[in-house]
Amino acid sequence: LGMPDSDIRQATGSTIGIEDGFGAMLLPFLATLASSSADDYPSAVANRLAGNVVDLFATLVAERAHPGGPGAGAQSHLIRRVRDFINRNLGDPDLSPERIAQAHHISVRYLHRLFEGEGTTVGQLVRQRRLEECGRELARRGRTAPTVSAVAQRWGFVNPAHFSRSFRAAYGVSPREWRDLRTAHGSERQGADLPPFSG
User: Fold this and answer.
1) How far apart are the first and last CA of the chain?
2) 145-162: b or e for each residue (b if 16 or more CB lie within 10 Å)?
3) Which distant-in-sequence residues (6+ apart) come within 8 Å of 61 by Cβ?
């Protein structure tokens, strides 16, 4: 989801109804989607839809973890905006703390200070989110699977060797091994979760 574990823990186990908030929009959509057949959508549409569902679910978690109102601080709002910006620009190889700070009209030093309580640095977050998206894309089955280097480039890695080293360091297997393992297990494993990210 590209969100801090603390946010996910805060939203986990809570009842989400259709009476108010983002759940009022998301739950009927998910119910309709769950009742449709996997054959209703072409592969390209289904893959895009899956990514959008993840984004919508992350929005719901953010709403539950940081409810609006007088208690919601400007700092947590800015962190959410920065995270959204990172998620929208993962494919840009020039995405850096400097560029992120400039886009939000803050100093790089203040940006780093914002993330001190998040359990990660800005650079680590960008790398983690890129690796997660690469892993998700490599796990998809299809008639024409993209090459590992094409996937890496699409998500902002300009050096394939650096990407392979980073992927192996984070997940314990190479990108090719990850893809082979996921596609060899058949369609029931399609889109399965990545192993825990080890940083």
Assistant:
1) 16
2) eeebeebbbebbbeebee
3) 1, 3, 7, 8, 11
Q: How far apart are CA 126 and CA 104, in angstroms?
A: 16
The CB density around residue 47, as the number of other CB atoms within 10 Å, is: 17
Cα–Cα distances in angstroms (integers) from residue 169 to residues 82, 164, 166, 176, in the given order: 26, 9, 5, 14
The structural architecture, per CATH, of the domain 124-189 is Orthogonal Bundle (1.10)
Residues 187, 180 contacting (CB under 8 angstroms): no
Q: Summarize pLDDT for 47-101 with one digit per residue, the tens.
A: 777 777 777 777 777 777 766 544 345 677 888 889 999 999 999 999 999 999 9
Tokens 């825990």, residue? 196
Could you tell me which residues come within 8 angstroms of residue 135 by beta carbon, excluding any fewer than 6 positions away?
167, 171, 175, 178, 194
- The rounded distance, in Å, linking the Cα atoms of 154 and 107 is 28
Amino acid at position 165, single letter: R
Report CA torsion sign: 36, 42, 45, 46. positive
Q: Where are the domains of the chain?
A: 1-71, 124-189
For 182, the enclosing helix (H) or strand (E) is: helix 175-184
